[in-house]
Amino acid sequence: AAKEAGRSTWRRFVPSMQARVESRFELEGELRKALDLQQLRLYLQPKTNREGQVYGTESLVRWEHPEKGLIPPDRFIPLAEDTGMILPLGEWVLKETLQLMTEYPQLSFAVNISPRQFRNPDFVARIKTLIQETGANPQRLTLEVTEGLLITDFNQSSRRMLELQQLGISFSIDDFGTGYSSLSYLKKLPINELKIDRSFVKDLPEDSSDALLVETMMAVAKHLQLSVVAEGVETQAQRDYLYSVDCNLHQGYFYGKPEPARQLLERLKP
Ligand code: C2E
Ligand code: MG
Ligand code: MG
Ligand code: MG
């Protein structure tokens, strides 16, 4: 019976695995063309302050596939990272964002930078060129990086961050709390902001261990004079709890989902 069960599991397993490999392979080829075919779309999600005002946005890329529809970044960013496609893709996101920055001078803009993009030796030079070409003000640009990037190559990362900081660029630690890293790096690096990962916000205010973690992160941030953004705020109860612990900068569906860049920006025009 065990053998029987094993065999039927195997039979079901193989085709689905094959489909996954095929679709990844297929997607990889198509992703190479997506840029040229202008299939990438820049979406923005608002960041809101305690007064309820949108003070900034985060750039979130989507891929508008002709047959598969709108593909979320979780399905192609890792692929782009593995294949090196992240370099032209990340450059596209930066350029699009910097171009918008000049038209909407009242807002700050955040862009996600993947490890391979950040480690590319040309990264600082590329950013400088893009700033010059677009005329964007780097004081209103924040780069979101993850904890993993900072730990694996601390010396190189910190040098690079300092160079970018000298241009006026700010840094935010994305998905903060998921990286199991030492807190000492926060003090040593030019970081301005922590983004509390959605997983800690999801079950607030009921989950007391998440509440404790959020309060601890707030204490760390206060001590190091960092601002804090809570990700994934979906309910009024979450918002109120976060306000009660003095976490006043929020991003999440409660305030607005990511939407096509122009659509959001036009609505925000003063
Ligand atoms: P992230 O940078 O942590 O972005 C936040 C993600 O949480 C976004 O997913 C956003 O749509 C989602 N989100 C925001 N508020 C809520 C909420 O209230 N509830 C729920 N359930 N989700 C919420 P998205 O747009 O699918 O992006 C996923 C990840 O893909 C991003 O996570 C980021 O790591 C990566 N990514 C997106 N765009 C880029 C890009 O241009 N470059 C790079 N390197 N990575 C990107
Ligand atoms: Mg982010
Ligand atoms: Mg995040
Ligand atoms: Mg996240």
TrEMBL record:
Domain EAL, by residue range, is: 24-270
Reply yes or no: does the keyword Membrane apply.
Answer: yes
Keywords from the UniProt entry? Membrane, Transmembrane, Transmembrane helix
Q: What is this protein called?
A: PAS domain S-box-containing protein/diguanylate cyclase (GGDEF) domain-containing protein
Taxonomic classification, please?
Bacteria, Pseudomonadati, Pseudomonadota, Gammaproteobacteria, Oceanospirillales
